[in-house]
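Study the following:
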Amino acid sequence: MATKHGHFAYKMLDKLGVEVSMPLYVRLDDTKTLAQVLTDANLLGQQLDPISDSQITDFEVRIKNGSGVSGGKSSPAATAENERTGLFNFSQSTSPYKFGIDVPSIADSKIVNGKIDLANADIAAFIAAMIAAGTAATPESTSLYTLLALLDALLTFRKHRRAESRRSFEVA
């Protein structure tokens, strides 16, 4: 058994309609199934419910892996800048609206003539993974709709000034 760390976040609603999230940090046994983890989260929620006047409306499970993805970079590329993003808009099942996935610091090598190179093998593999059913997880929109096809992709910029200034501030 390897230990993983994570948390259960319970959404709690008060009489005024204010919803807050209450995290409970947990140690998880990675040999257990997702169903077993969800059962434990539900049982802890049943113990939380009687000691709060708020209604538990939902809960989520987050698992911290503790390291980057296997085979990933050991450090950021010299061109990495999280404000420059690649926005991939997908069509959704049963919805006429686009669903966007914003990839921070889209790689310079994936940009050709100021546009995201959709013919690039890595970009094509990413798009295929977003619209394919996985073994244990299938990507979906925040509305819980299946992603069907890429509609468009564009370069965008998302401000992260506060986080950036904390890391780039120098005292003379």
Q: What stands out?
A: The CA atoms of residues 3 and 29 lie 5 Å apart. The chain has two domains: 3-64, 84-159. The beta strands are 3-13, 19-29, 55-64, 84-92, 95-104, 111-112, 115-116, 147-157.
